[in-house]
Design a protein that fits this description.
- The chain is α/β, with parallel strands linked by helices.
- The protein has two domains: about 110 residues, Rossmann fold (3-Layer(aba) Sandwich); about 120 residues, Rossmann fold (3-Layer(aba) Sandwich).
- Helices cover about 35% and strands about 15% of the residues.
- It has a three-stranded parallel beta sheet, covered by helices on one side. A three-stranded antiparallel beta sheet has the order 4-7-10.
- α8 links the parallel β11 and β12.
- α6 packs across α8 and α7 crosses α8.
- The longest helix is centred in the N-terminal third of the chain and has 13 residues.
- The two termini are about 20 Å apart.
- The protein binds glutamic acid.
């Protein structure tokens, strides 16, 4: 099996990433491989020193990966091509709403915050064309209802749970191309998993809901579905999810304080087999 670990260089890796990385490297089994992919589509938040930190921390954990590493920022044309195909299928629309507009208009909230209520989905073609011609900033969203009407019912296989039915509308119409970048997290992950021929996606439970959208995108684009294995998250001592903002658990700091890899594994409850 071919798996991947796909961190974003927007901060330093912490104990939660150590668990995620060890899980990803073990997931494809002894005869499989885990690729490393750098998800750096966000020019404002990604930094070269964070990327270097990823390589240093993973090497410290004893992990190795095939090179060259795919860095998303170098493959914008692949995402653009997928976006064009989706647009030609009639399942995308421009959205002129800011984050605040969405927050204000939302009537439903999901685990990831305000669910986009579809404000721009019904704009007529002339208004869209006028606003684009005027240079109004806009993202591109996926019309999940239209997409699902094309694909019909979908499922994904979750390694330890079996078949999971896709609920395409679970988080509203997602952004597939941002205002500032001609792709989004969902689109670039879906395209890369396909182009890299990934057969197993090991990742944290916090991305479980993202799989509904990514499975729909795969089906629309005619891509094969990998197997998924979402793992439980490492919690801090208060039972909260660890985050990149929580500097106390940055691997580089722990290393500098003298923690060994064995100390890290003990803290995250990791057992080598
Ligand atoms: N780049 C994403 C992150 O750092 C993970 C993407 C994925 O595993 O699908 O949260």
């Amino acid at each position: 099996m071919l798996a991947r670990f796909a961190p974003s260089p927007t901060g330093r890796l912490h104990l939660g990433h150590a668990y995620a990385a060890l899980f990803a490297w073990r997931a494809p089994g002894r005869t499989g491989t885990c690729l490393l992919r750098i998800e750096d589509i966000d020019p404002d938040r990604c930094r070269p020193d964070y990327e270097q930190g990823i390589y240093d921390d993973l090497a410290w954990l004893g992990l190795t990966w095939p090179t060259p590493v795919r860095r998303q920022s170098q493959h914008m044309q692949d995402y653009r091509a997928a976006l064009t195909r989706l647009t030609e299928m009639g399942v995308t629309y421009p959205c002129f709403c800011s984050r605040q507009d969405v927050a204000r208009a939302a009537t439903a909230h999901g685990p990831e915050g305000a669910i986009y209520p579809g404000t721009c989905r019904t704009l007529d073609a002339a208004t869209r064309a006028d606003r684009i011609a005027r240079g109004d900033a806009h993202s591109i969203r996926l019309d999940v209802a239209r997409g699902a009407a094309i694909t019909g019912p979908l499922f994904w296989d979750e390694r330890d749970e079996g078949r999971i039915a896709v609920d395409p509308a679970i988080g509203g119409d997602p952004v597939i191309a941002r205002r500032d970048v001609p792709t989004s997290y969902h689109l670039s992950v879906t395209v890369d998993d396909h182009l890299q021929q990934i057969t197993l996606v090991p990742r944290g439970r916090d991305l479980f809901l993202a799989t509904h959208v990514q499975r729909l995108l795969q089906a629309l684009l005619g891509f094969a579905a990998p197997l998924y294995a979402h793992h439980a998250l490492v919690l801090d001592t208060d039972g909260q999810k660890l985050s990149k903002r929580d500097h106390a658990t940055a691997l580089a700091d722990l290393r500098a304080e003298g923690w060994s890899v064995a100390d890290v594994k003990k803290r995250i409850g990791w057992q080598d087999d």
